[in-house]
Fold this sequence. Notes:
By secondary structure, the protein is mostly helical. The chain is built from two helices and no strands.
Amino acid sequence: xxxxxxxxxxxxxxxxxxxxxxxxxxxxxxxxxxxxxxxxxxxxxxxxxxxxxxxxxxxx
Length: 60
């Protein structure tokens, strides 16, 4: 009985370790544009916040 449980446990752990990777659908032009826009917006936001933090530390 213990042998069956340990093999089941080992099988479950192996299944977790070797999960199949979900294939992503190729992006269409609209999705590519949206993705680029989101990345650019996040980059610009980070740059703006860094500038504001730098100016805030100077004025204090």
